[in-house]
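One record is kept unedited as follows:
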Amino acid sequence: MLRYLAALRWQRIVLWCYLCWYFAIIALYLDTSPLLWLSSVGISAIIGAALLLSITKPGGVRPDRWTVFRLFLMPFCVSSYSAIIKGRGFVLIFPPELRPNLIALASCPVFITLCLVCRRLVGRGQTRTP
């Protein structure tokens, strides 16, 4: 896990920051309605399959597991997020109160700091000789 976080490029760090925001908002505004989550799973299956078909070439190289996972995870996150925030006064993706915005926003620098610490730890481990 340390090596994974240490090796992340900025594009993947941005995607992880999106996920950090998602988790923060979902935790703060959790709705335990099974129908909401089942609908999100259904949308994820339909849209994820369509996205997978759109990037898979006949006879070509199959996408790696992480790519396939993301193709299904993103529609799940989008559909569940939109269902969670519906009717709560959000402006675009932002909660109407300052505190939840600050918590969700802070999750990204925390994650970036974690990646930087991992880079430093892995870098030190590579320079050592047994």
Q: What stands out?
A: Residues 31 and 84 are 6 Å apart (CA to CA). The radius of gyration is 18 Å.
